[in-house]
Design a protein that fits this description.
- There is one protein chain.
- It contains 2 helices and 31 strands.
- With 430 residues, it is mainly beta.
- Strands 8, 11, 15, 16, 19 and 20 form a 6-stranded mixed sheet that branches. It has a 5-stranded antiparallel sheet with strand order 13-10-17-12-14, with no helix packed on it.
- A hairpin with a 2-residue loop joins strand 4 and strand 5.
- The protein is globular, with a radius of gyration of 24 Å.
């Protein structure tokens, strides 16, 4: 626990004690010179001890206290059943966002005409010889005769031990080949039908550590039921089979939809760096990658002067990711953030709601910046789909929907020149 900021408390003989401490090694914590935690309430009933305490988010104790921020915070807990300050018998850990809720606090009423449908990939075989598997399947949207709005969805995760992320991509072309439905394929291989390669609009999403239930804001819903809407979904599950065991999985989404329309259609904009081998992270280093959604693209596709109302975001990289920042740029100057996490945790990814919506205007830009720690890697790490590859993405959830699902960039070829000390570069005409 070296470097940990610790609070220790107990109740003995009806007297409560609370101490502000820190760890200097795998030994008994050391009392801080400055005591910043305040005991608010203490109760002990039978085998239950409850302590309520508080402190400033930033105590000014730079030596021993960690500031509590909106970043992902890694929490350790431990206790001993006796009333003495002894070495813990029980312990655990978790990651949390202490300063915000992954979902809005207000209760959003469901209309009386709401219905549900399930998008489930049945009996997916994840073999022991696959440490990473991307599995895709086409699933139909309910046949509707009028416009409806999806207003809520929940991830149904059958095998959380191997589930890394689950995405439902919206596909806007109709499929006449009925045999493609209810059949699974390994994603982005020659076995996957070409129709599935055209489905790239992220519509529903979940990642490891994230909340399973997602409410859309009361002003917006995801439109289905018209010719201009999603005709079917491509479900993509990323399985991280690190233990290399055989599994059978049946995961997917439950979706709530209604003919009671909201004011706006909602959409998702994928920003960042395209996941290709052009992205190279050298070993034994702290390395930063940038992906850009340039002002030319937003000026072309965002046609309304009021722009887009961005109500939530989801930051995504893989095992080497340590920090992710989505910068909001206007007229060449950063004016804020579309998401930022200085303690990014691969195993704790959330769709995080903004307390107040951000506005993406025509001519704005988004720069996604990912900081990687490859200090334990011996070889280069490349961009790609595998868990051992890397990504650098920020998904922005917004309304009203526009005809642009992604706004990302390739990592400049000059990065490879610098890393490999190359002297000749063949022009990329693609």
């Amino acid at each position: 626990m070296t470097g940990a900021d610790i609070v220790v408390g107990w109740v003995k003989d009806s007297k409560a004690t609370l101490q502000d401490m820190h760890a200097e090694g795998n030994a008994k914590p050391v009392l801080d010179e400055k005591q910043d935690w305040k005991l608010l309430n203490a109760e002990e009933t039978g085998t239950i001890t409850a302590l309520r305490f508080s402190r400033l988010l930033d105590t000014g104790d730079c030596k021993h206290d960690r500031p509590i921020t909106a970043d992902t915070m890694h929490i350790l807990w431990a206790y001993h059943p006796s009333d003495e300050f002894e070495y813990h018998q029980f312990k655990g850990q978790m990651s949390l966002h202490l300063l915000d809720s992954a979902q809005p606090q207000q209760v959003i009423d469901m209309p009386p005409d709401v219905k549900t449908f399930d998008l489930i990939m049945p009996n997916v075989t994840v073999p022991a010889n696959k440490s990473t598997l991307y599995w895709c399947q086409i699933l139909a949207v309910p046949k509707l005769t009028s416009k409806h709005h999806i207003i809520k969805y929940a991830a149904i995760i059958d095998k959380p031990q191997i589930a890394h992320h689950l995405i439902a991509y919206g596909c806007f072309q109709s499929i006449t080949n009925a045999s493609l439905y209810n059949t699974g394929y390994e994603c982005y291989t020659q076995s996957m039908p070409p129709e599935l390669f055209n489905c790239w609009e992220t519509t529903l999403g979940w990642a490891v550590g994230g909340d399973e239930l997602v409410h859309l804001p009361p002003e917006a819903g995801i439109s289905i039921g018209t010719r201009e809407d999603v005709q079917f979904f491509k479900l993509e599950m990323h399985y991280n089979n690190a233990d290399k065991k055989d599994w059978i999985d049946q995961s997917g989404f439950k979706v709530w939809y209604t003919p009671t329309l909201r004011k706006y259609d909602a959409g998702t904009l994928t920003t960042g760096a395209l996941e290709t081998e052009r992205q190279v992270i050298p070993p034994k280093s702290m390395f930063t990658t940038h992906g850009i959604c340039p002002e030319e693209c937003t000026r072309k596709f965002i046609t309304e002067p009021e722009g887009l109302h961005v109500f939530a975001y989801w930051l995504h990289s893989h095992l080497l990711g340590r920090k992710i920042r989505a910068r909001h740029i206007r007229k060449g100057v950063q004016i804020g953030w579309f998401g930022k996490d200085e303690n990014y945790n691969f195993n704790y990814q959330q769709i995080r709601m903004f307390n107040s919506e951000k506005r993406l205007l025509p001519g704005d830009a988004v720069i996604v910046e990912c900081v990687y720690d490859s200090s334990e890697r011996e070889l280069n790490t490349y961009g790609g789909l595998s868990t051992m590859n890397e990504m650098c993405l920020a998904f922005l959830f917004y309304y009203p929907r526009i005809k642009m699902s992604g706004c990302a960039s390739l990592v400049p070829a000059q990065n490879q020149v610098d890393i490999f000390n190359a002297s000749v570069v063949v022009a990329d005409n693609g």
